[in-house]
Design goal:
201 residues
Length: 201
Protein backbone atom coordinates (compact mmCIF):
# COMPACT_ATOMS: atom_id res chain seq x y z
CA UNK A 1 0.00 0.00 0.00
CA UNK A 2 1.28 3.48 -0.92
CA UNK A 3 1.17 6.12 1.79
CA UNK A 4 1.53 9.71 0.62
CA UNK A 5 1.00 13.13 2.14
CA UNK A 6 0.50 16.41 0.34
CA UNK A 7 3.15 19.01 1.19
CA UNK A 8 3.37 22.66 0.24
CA UNK A 9 6.74 23.50 -1.31
CA UNK A 10 8.26 26.78 -0.20
CA UNK A 11 11.13 28.00 -2.34
CA UNK A 12 14.01 30.47 -2.20
CA UNK A 13 15.47 31.22 -5.63
CA UNK A 14 19.07 32.46 -5.79
CA UNK A 15 20.68 34.31 -8.68
CA UNK A 16 24.25 33.37 -9.57
CA UNK A 17 26.33 34.70 -6.67
CA UNK A 18 30.05 34.38 -5.84
CA UNK A 19 30.62 31.71 -3.20
CA UNK A 20 32.45 34.27 -1.03
CA UNK A 21 29.10 36.07 -0.61
CA UNK A 22 26.76 33.08 -0.83
CA UNK A 23 28.24 30.86 1.91
CA UNK A 24 28.23 33.52 4.68
CA UNK A 25 24.68 34.58 3.72
CA UNK A 26 23.35 31.02 3.91
CA UNK A 27 25.34 30.32 7.08
CA UNK A 28 23.77 33.34 8.80
CA UNK A 29 20.22 32.43 7.68
CA UNK A 30 20.50 28.62 7.82
CA UNK A 31 17.90 28.20 10.57
CA UNK A 32 15.34 30.08 8.50
CA UNK A 33 16.27 28.47 5.17
CA UNK A 34 15.93 24.88 6.45
CA UNK A 35 12.19 25.10 5.91
CA UNK A 36 12.61 25.91 2.21
CA UNK A 37 13.80 24.35 -1.03
CA UNK A 38 16.75 26.43 -2.26
CA UNK A 39 16.99 26.78 -6.03
CA UNK A 40 20.20 28.10 -7.56
CA UNK A 41 20.45 29.42 -11.09
CA UNK A 42 23.55 28.04 -12.72
CA UNK A 43 25.80 25.17 -11.71
CA UNK A 44 26.98 25.06 -8.10
CA UNK A 45 30.62 25.07 -7.07
CA UNK A 46 31.60 21.79 -5.33
CA UNK A 47 32.56 23.71 -2.18
CA UNK A 48 29.11 25.33 -2.06
CA UNK A 49 27.41 21.98 -2.69
CA UNK A 50 29.39 20.34 0.15
CA UNK A 51 28.54 23.27 2.45
CA UNK A 52 24.80 23.02 1.68
CA UNK A 53 24.84 19.30 2.37
CA UNK A 54 26.74 19.79 5.65
CA UNK A 55 24.09 22.33 6.74
CA UNK A 56 21.31 19.81 5.98
CA UNK A 57 19.62 22.06 3.42
CA UNK A 58 17.37 20.94 0.56
CA UNK A 59 18.49 22.38 -2.76
CA UNK A 60 18.34 22.16 -6.53
CA UNK A 61 20.87 23.50 -8.93
CA UNK A 62 20.22 24.06 -12.58
CA UNK A 63 21.91 25.95 -15.36
CA UNK A 64 18.53 27.06 -16.72
CA UNK A 65 15.83 29.30 -15.36
CA UNK A 66 13.15 27.24 -13.69
CA UNK A 67 9.49 28.01 -14.43
CA UNK A 68 8.64 29.49 -11.05
CA UNK A 69 6.13 32.27 -10.61
CA UNK A 70 7.36 35.14 -8.48
CA UNK A 71 5.79 38.44 -7.55
CA UNK A 72 7.45 40.01 -10.58
CA UNK A 73 6.27 37.46 -13.15
CA UNK A 74 3.18 38.26 -15.15
CA UNK A 75 2.14 34.80 -16.22
CA UNK A 76 2.93 31.13 -16.28
CA UNK A 77 5.92 29.76 -18.12
CA UNK A 78 5.37 26.37 -19.77
CA UNK A 79 7.31 23.39 -18.45
CA UNK A 80 9.09 22.62 -21.71
CA UNK A 81 12.85 22.50 -22.30
CA UNK A 82 13.58 21.73 -18.66
CA UNK A 83 16.35 19.34 -17.75
CA UNK A 84 16.21 17.40 -14.52
CA UNK A 85 18.26 19.23 -11.88
CA UNK A 86 20.22 17.57 -9.10
CA UNK A 87 18.09 16.99 -6.02
CA UNK A 88 19.85 16.84 -2.68
CA UNK A 89 17.28 16.03 -0.01
CA UNK A 90 18.01 16.50 3.67
CA UNK A 91 16.00 14.97 6.51
CA UNK A 92 13.91 17.42 8.51
CA UNK A 93 15.03 17.44 12.11
CA UNK A 94 12.52 17.65 14.92
CA UNK A 95 14.10 19.23 17.96
CA UNK A 96 12.83 21.18 20.91
CA UNK A 97 9.23 21.97 21.66
CA UNK A 98 6.64 23.11 19.15
CA UNK A 99 3.76 25.36 20.10
CA UNK A 100 0.78 25.77 17.76
CA UNK A 101 -1.85 28.47 17.89
CA UNK A 102 -5.21 28.48 16.12
CA UNK A 103 -6.47 31.71 17.71
CA UNK A 104 -6.35 35.03 15.91
CA UNK A 105 -3.64 36.46 18.21
CA UNK A 106 -0.96 34.68 20.22
CA UNK A 107 0.57 36.88 22.91
CA UNK A 108 3.73 35.67 24.69
CA UNK A 109 5.23 37.57 27.63
CA UNK A 110 8.44 35.61 27.98
CA UNK A 111 11.74 34.71 26.36
CA UNK A 112 11.39 32.25 23.46
CA UNK A 113 14.01 29.63 24.25
CA UNK A 114 16.43 28.00 21.83
CA UNK A 115 14.82 24.98 20.17
CA UNK A 116 11.26 26.27 20.55
CA UNK A 117 9.07 26.56 17.47
CA UNK A 118 5.98 28.76 17.59
CA UNK A 119 3.51 28.20 14.72
CA UNK A 120 0.50 30.52 14.53
CA UNK A 121 -2.35 30.81 12.01
CA UNK A 122 -2.98 34.37 13.17
CA UNK A 123 -1.00 37.26 14.65
CA UNK A 124 1.88 36.89 17.12
CA UNK A 125 3.01 39.44 19.72
CA UNK A 126 6.12 38.69 21.78
CA UNK A 127 7.16 40.77 24.79
CA UNK A 128 10.57 39.18 25.21
CA UNK A 129 13.78 38.07 23.58
CA UNK A 130 13.86 35.42 20.84
CA UNK A 131 16.91 33.25 21.49
CA UNK A 132 19.17 31.75 18.85
CA UNK A 133 17.71 28.49 17.53
CA UNK A 134 14.09 29.52 18.22
CA UNK A 135 11.68 29.75 15.27
CA UNK A 136 8.50 31.81 14.92
CA UNK A 137 6.17 31.10 11.98
CA UNK A 138 3.05 33.25 11.63
CA UNK A 139 0.42 33.49 8.92
CA UNK A 140 -0.62 36.83 10.42
CA UNK A 141 1.23 39.93 11.59
CA UNK A 142 4.18 39.80 14.00
CA UNK A 143 5.23 42.24 16.71
CA UNK A 144 8.40 41.65 18.73
CA UNK A 145 9.37 43.92 21.64
CA UNK A 146 12.64 42.16 22.44
CA UNK A 147 15.93 41.41 20.73
CA UNK A 148 15.77 38.86 17.90
CA UNK A 149 18.43 36.17 17.70
CA UNK A 150 16.22 33.40 16.29
CA UNK A 151 14.30 33.03 13.02
CA UNK A 152 10.95 34.63 12.15
CA UNK A 153 8.74 33.94 9.13
CA UNK A 154 5.85 36.38 8.75
CA UNK A 155 3.16 36.02 6.07
CA UNK A 156 1.05 38.89 7.38
CA UNK A 157 0.58 42.48 6.24
CA UNK A 158 3.03 44.11 8.67
CA UNK A 159 5.64 43.63 11.38
CA UNK A 160 6.81 45.77 14.29
CA UNK A 161 10.42 45.05 15.23
CA UNK A 162 13.15 46.52 17.40
CA UNK A 163 16.65 45.09 17.26
CA UNK A 164 17.61 42.15 15.05
CA UNK A 165 20.77 40.70 16.58
CA UNK A 166 22.03 37.42 15.12
CA UNK A 167 18.53 36.51 13.93
CA UNK A 168 16.88 36.15 10.52
CA UNK A 169 13.52 37.67 9.61
CA UNK A 170 11.58 36.72 6.48
CA UNK A 171 8.80 39.08 5.40
CA UNK A 172 7.16 39.55 2.01
CA UNK A 173 9.46 36.91 0.47
CA UNK A 174 12.60 38.83 1.51
CA UNK A 175 15.09 38.35 4.33
CA UNK A 176 15.33 41.69 6.13
CA UNK A 177 18.72 43.37 6.55
CA UNK A 178 19.51 43.29 10.32
CA UNK A 179 21.65 46.44 10.04
CA UNK A 180 18.43 48.45 9.51
CA UNK A 181 17.14 47.47 12.97
CA UNK A 182 19.17 48.94 15.85
CA UNK A 183 16.67 48.91 18.71
CA UNK A 184 14.18 51.69 17.99
CA UNK A 185 10.85 50.23 16.92
CA UNK A 186 10.20 50.12 13.18
CA UNK A 187 7.20 49.13 11.13
CA UNK A 188 7.71 46.81 8.18
CA UNK A 189 5.03 46.51 5.52
CA UNK A 190 4.49 45.98 1.80
CA UNK A 191 4.09 49.10 -0.31
CA UNK A 192 3.36 48.58 -4.02
CA UNK A 193 4.71 45.04 -3.79
CA UNK A 194 8.00 46.07 -2.13
CA UNK A 195 9.09 45.78 1.48
CA UNK A 196 9.11 49.17 3.21
CA UNK A 197 10.66 49.95 6.62
CA UNK A 198 9.78 53.10 8.57
CA UNK A 199 10.42 54.46 12.06
CA UNK A 200 7.45 54.42 14.43
CA UNK A 201 6.95 58.01 15.55
Amino acid sequence: MVQAKQKNLRVFEFEETPKEDLIPYIQKNAVLLRGFMLIFKGALDEEVRAFLQSEGLNFLDSSIQLPLKSRESSGEIPFKNITTPTLSPAPLEESGSKEHSRSSTLCLRRTIRSGEEIVASGDVTIFGRINSGAIIRAEGNVQVFGEIHGAIECEGEYMILGKIGQGSVLFGGEILDPSLFHGSLKQVFLEEGRVSIKEIV
